[in-house]
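Reopening this ticket.

The earlier resolution said the output was attached, but the attachment link was broken on my side. Pasting everything inline this time so it's all in one place.
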Amino acid sequence: MSFTLYRGNAPLLVSVPHVGTEIPHDQRGRYAERAFEVEDTDWFLDRLYAFVREMGASLIVPRYSRYLIDLNRPSENTPMYEGQNNTELCPTRFFTGEPLYLPDQAPDGSEIRRRVLTYWRPYHGALHDELSRIHAQHGHAVLFDGHSIKSELPWLFDGTLPHMNLGTVDGTSCAPALRDALAAVFAAQDRYSHVVDGRFKGGHITRTYGRPELGIHAAQLEMCWRAYMDETPPRWNDDRVAEVTPTLRALVQAMLDWRPN
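Inline output:
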């Protein structure tokens, strides 16, 4: 199985599409040696967000690395952010810009289509089905798409990112009252810098499944690694995790407490 779905009983599904670290054996010969460090993983988010299961939320966790296929990109591979460097559906570069594959080994159209059918479609089928189940049970559903990233990556963005980057596709992927409730969680604390709908407004998952007019609301959090881990080398940090978890719990609780008018 290419992912694991932990089904809850609350009106919330948490997706962490970039925590996978495996590269299938039959594809490993294509990659530069550096790729096997999977440095652009959203490190440890399945562990960090494990508490959501105790709170009743569903959690979906993929097995394979974004270097195989990016589950948060559209299957037709259109760019997420026009006019800026973007990583593709099947990325060909590290976040630092260097080639991910050995010369002439990047996947061709046939291989990309195979990866879509084998890995991308099952994950998105599970997202769709679980959101449909939650909506049928509760009358609405909230999707929280969790991400994390190194604080500074000049190939992708200028400067240093805020600790917390909440994205609601400029307020279109969820009800305004839910957006306000989530933003209020960050406004109520002063430990972590934050922005709403800044550089990271929400990727394909947030943009596709956030349909507030249909009772499905989505938000993305792009959190900088420095909020919960050591960045170089990537390493779990107990002290930082203990500090950030109350804020993340408050964010999840706001999603659980919120109800449509």
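Reporter confirms the inline version is readable. The mean pLDDT is 96. Helices lie at 45-48, 51-54, 109-138, 176-187, 204-209, 238-257.
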